[in-house]
Design goal:
Helices cover 29% and strands 17% of the residues. By secondary structure, it is α/β, with parallel strands linked by helices. Strands 2-4-6-5-9-10-11-12 form an eight-stranded mixed β-sheet, with helices on both faces. A two-stranded parallel ribbon has the order 1-3. A two-stranded antiparallel sheet has the order 7-8. Strand 5, helix 3 and strand 6 form a beta-alpha-beta unit.
Amino acid sequence: MGLEALGLMNKFKFALALLLTGTALADSWAPKKGHRQVPIWPAHSPILAEGIRKLEDREISASKAVTNVSNPTYTVYSPKTNPSGTCIVVFPGGGHLVLAMGIEGTEIADWLNQSGITCVLVKYRVPYSGCYYDSQTNKHVTPKVPMALQDAQRTISLLREHAREYRIDPNKIGVMGFSAGGNVAVLASTNGLKRSYKARDATDQISCRPDFAIPVYPGHMTMRHKNVDSRALNTDIVISPSIPPTMLVHAQDDPVDPVHYSEIYAAALKKAGIPVKLKLYKHGGHAFGVRKQGADSDGWTQDVLAWLKQIKIL
């Protein structure tokens, strides 16, 4: 088994372990006092009914990750001082099986707020809402209904609709995702002009194209995730002129989502003339979030802020 396959296998086992050992919370995550979860879809929306695949109910008591999300939400975290009007929509990772709402969610919100950036944390539908690894068949599976992408696109439209209420600039809304969430960010930025579900109300008439994208150690980027032994770009990722400026963040020693995932995508964007910055770090591993570990990857947050200023978003 190659390094890529082994890493993906380990990631699936990690997510499964979260479920079975009580370190995943069954859709009971809630933000701290002072923040409110906003439903992404209206009650009884057919989009929800068409997409979600139910898990067997189980009692899970810990709070490190979240699963079995059938009613997705977003939570707005606004900076208390020096608001810039810039907004970043954050998608936590978890292999499309669970959501790492802490290390790749609320901790990211704290950092962004300290930088004057509004963070919108998305609790998108899981499990099976995007490409995932099936241990029963030893294959990758792409669900027929791209629920995570649907939730992402709807959230961006809702934010533009309520931009004045949230005190954000509707022309400075970007996406950031980690691991599987990084793939959601990629798909949101490559499908900005193509909604993944049939428009149903006035909100869906508002643009869902992000103004910039920051995938951090993104997963599911190659044809390996179509069960083809190839490093070619995943055909779910369609390159077009509508893709916004993109910054990719990756550690070269990532054992789960290999660095070539970002390298291949960056090369495709560059070839198409899309503004892209590929920031690689020698050390950092996987799922480092904003936690300091004495590695060069600790500097990625400052590098992102510098890039946002360079492209005149911040």
